[in-house]
Model the fold of this input.
Amino acid sequence: MTTRGESGTPTGAGSAGGTGSAGGTASTAGTGSAGSVGRTSRTSSPGRTGSAVGASGAGSTPIARGADGTDGLWAAGRRIFVNALVTKVARDHQEPDRDFRRRRVIAALTLCAGGLLLGLSFSVRPADPAFYPLTFGLAAVWVAGGLISGPLHLGYSRTRGRMRRPVLIPVLTGLAVVVVFVAGALVVRDIAPLHRLVDSVLAHAREGSAPLVAVITLVNGIAEEIFFRGGLYAAIGVRQPVLISTLVYTAVTLASGNIMLVFAAVTLGFVLGLQRRASGGILAPILTHITWSMSMFLLLPPIFAAA
Done:
């Protein structure tokens, strides 16, 4: 019986590629699962120590420091970036062909249902009470599709040679993306057609219940990652999953009818896909997504109100 899914040893810090295979046998001893949620996986966890890497591996190369310390800071920053978005940690997420095909069917059905609900959600006017059940229902669809599709994994990152759950770096990554979007917002607010598109989204909080919209923003951020970087990503296989998951995420966002949300989906989706690929799980994408979305919820209204 053939198997499909992600497997392999971690890549070197200077490599953007991976060593996972699309099928065949599981990875060699010493590699393990990147942690799991939902159904119990038959793979093992890498624990705290993780797999050893060579001299080029993340966490093993000493940082060269210049006289003013800038070289050391640059090297440390580069290493953090590579660990978060490039270097793949060891994982063994193999599953039988039958389960892989089932995952794809569930992902396709979820995309259809989610796209329909997303379109309906943004077709209602701000302050319309129907917006709230529609968007909570959308989150429920994403979560159900992700969990029912098969085992999901939280993932790990390599920090100082040890395998840990990714927490701080994903939050900082989310804040870095926020800086980029805020800079873009300062430009967009002065372009009338684009300003109106952003304002049509912000109006749901301004004219409706802001606390409820904040909860919806948080819940949907988590739900989207459970499905798009969880169930859907795993259903794609090992051939260009970052690119394909980003394109699908963008295509579904088209149902909102708002080009600014589509642009956000392309940019954010690509970063989240890289995190999923590097960490082998959904924890890093979840933390980055909710950091970004909640920051946008708080920062965009005053930026556009000042225009």
